[in-house]
Amino acid sequence: MRVRPDYRQFVRHRRLVHRGDAVVVAPNIQTELFSTDGAGFRHSVFKGETLAPAEIAARARYGIVLGSSHIFGLGLAGNENTIPSLLGDRFGIPFANISLPEGNSRNLSSLLTAYIARAPRTPAIVIHFSGGDFTNFSLSSIADPVFGSPNLKQLEMVIEERGGRPNPQTQIKALLAFTSLWTRTIVEQCRASGIPILLGHDTTFFEKSEPNDLERECALGIPFNAVQAKWFGTHRAFFPDFLTRRETLAQKLKVPLIGPDHSNWLTFIDEMHYDQDGMIAWADQMAGAVEPLLQPRT
């Protein structure tokens, strides 16, 4: 927070609330750094307008980015600097930021179903990131093959019910089954509606080959309490399994999987969230895969 003063405002204002069984950032937050709509989604900026996802879905042509807090842009000042806003600037259509804190693929599948059912027109493209599936698992070491891992507000209660965190080695197969099931569901939803879809690699600081000076100064990757030590250790131990499943699934579904894989060159605010330069680099990386899918179909 000393070297990233904007982060303070996110910590101060980011209140998490339940929306059904999903956790969202509190609705109708308005700060100089970020804002949320009445459903708790972060606004996108398109041609100078600040737009909620529902307003974007009413446009003649639009895209959707599905993801968790790294797509929300936790700690990133300016709605205009998120990946959906950057893609909107590049391609001339607004992109809705449909992201939840640690949002998993089951939550995001439900949200996509609602947009397909209610919007006047289907989106021109959907980009899906499933990193929330794995982050919830890393935090809890718990997974169900259908319902996934407990969310952030459930975690303490679920650990108490189980008498502690289980060995993640006994749970990883359930997590991989969960992410496969709901990622496939999202892909099939899009294909049934004729919507082009891309899957995005969810990459973190832990996959970065070499930290920069600011990341070293912030001691990223070094746990400062027992919870982080367990979380970071589980991430490092099992992320290769998650990555392999993601790559295999994309090949089976014949869906492009975009972005860095076994290492990355992005820049980070904390272990999970990109800074402004990192967001720009990610948007640039995506652009080559997005552009051909936005061409008029014949």
Question: What structural keywords apply?
Answer:
298 residues; alpha/beta; Rossmann fold; five-stranded parallel beta sheet; two-stranded antiparallel sheet; 11 helices; 44% helix; globular
Largest sheet: 5 strands, parallel
Report the total helices: 11
Strand portion: 5-15%
How many domains make up the 3D coordinates? 1
The end-to-end distance, rounded to whole angstroms, is 51 Å
- The CATH homologous superfamily is named SGNH hydrolase
- CATH architecture classification: 3-Layer(aba) Sandwich
User: What is the H-and-E element order?
Assistant: HEEEEHEHHEHEHHHEHHEH
Helix content: 40-55%
Overall number of strands: 9
Shape: globular
User: Radius of gyration, Cα only, in angstroms?
Assistant: 18 Å
Order of strands, main sheet, comes to 6-5-7-8-9
CATH class: Alpha Beta
> Would you tell me the structural class of the helices and strands?
alpha/beta
Q: What would the CATH topology be?
A: Rossmann fold
User: In terms of per-residue confidence, which ranges show pLDDT below 50 for 5 or more consecutive residues?
Assistant: none
**Average predicted confidence as pLDDT:** 93
